[in-house]
Amino acid sequence: MSFFKNIFSKEKKETLDKGLEKTKTTFFDKLSKAVAGKSKVDDDVLDNLEEILVSSDVGVNTTLKIIDRIEARVSKDKFLGTDELNKILREEIAGLLSEIDSGNATEFEIPENKKPYVIMVVGVNGVGKTTTIGKLAYQFKKAGKKVVLGAADTFRAAAIDQLQIWADRTDVILVKQSMGSDPASVAFDTLQSAVNQNADVVIIDTAGRLHNKVNLMNELTKVKRVMQKVIPDAPHDVLLVLDGSTGQNAFEQAKQFTAATEVTSLAVTKLDGTAKGGVVIGISDQFKIPVKYIGVGEGMEDLQVFNKFEFVDSFFK
């Protein structure tokens, strides 16, 4: 297909390839066993492929869509050899991801007509939320943007301390209050500070408690409402951070958070240490929420803008 061409820099592409190595190796080991001794794609091969996709955390519903697409090609082309399966899978997964309106960017960009551009970050504790915020701050600062962070996860002292470390490391402004302060008050102060300092990007951290969805919903709604007193259309992006290494648990978190608040984009972290990279495909498809960023390593540069074509290219390389 014509869209498979490198649009990332060589270094970024190598990082992506390396980050997906574990997922790719596991997937293709299983695939080669599934087609061993077979010359054409038949019902047995498709049954095995279905099992492989589900066990790679692509998710049942998305797997069934992919299988349906391949079955349609098998019936149309009559004879499809197993040697063509890799190419067909690659094309059909790219086609599926193309139906979601996102994933074509290659750089860390924000709309020019929104200043400051406000990102509210949500997600349970332990998924890499604070690290993602720090890496986002680094990338936006590197792109020449003035960045302000807001420590509105006032439930945990460690969250405020961790954000301070990232603010110091990336040399950006952090607005914070003491532990136990009202998160909405922190968000209000952060946006006022950003407007006064003519900042380009504001990133607000929020508490990651999911044990009581009603409380979470009320808190996030209040934070949004208070932010809108300063910037009427804030937040411009509600970014949900998910840990890719947790596989099906990431699906469950996505379900809980999309029920609790209006999530507009996703960041999937920790893909480098896992064979569960297929979760990106399933989550994109099932929730119809664009994956905006993926974490493919621990370095500052290893948070990448998600590009669906580069992702599929690296997955099937």
UniProtKB/TrEMBL annotation:
EC assignment: 3.6.5.4
Organism: Aequorivita sublithincola (strain DSM 14238 / LMG 21431 / ACAM 643 / 9-3)
Residues binding GTP: 123-130, 205-209, 269-272
Family named by the database record: Belongs to the GTP-binding SRP family. FtsY subfamily.
GO biological process, one term: SRP-dependent cotranslational protein targeting to membrane
PANTHER family on file: SIGNAL RECOGNITION PARTICLE RECEPTOR SUBUNIT ALPHA (PTHR43134)
GO molecular function, one term: GTP binding
Its membrane topology: Peripheral membrane protein
Residue ranges occupied by any SRP54-type proteins GTP-binding domain in the UniProt entry: 290-303
Protein name, as recorded: Signal recognition particle receptor FtsY
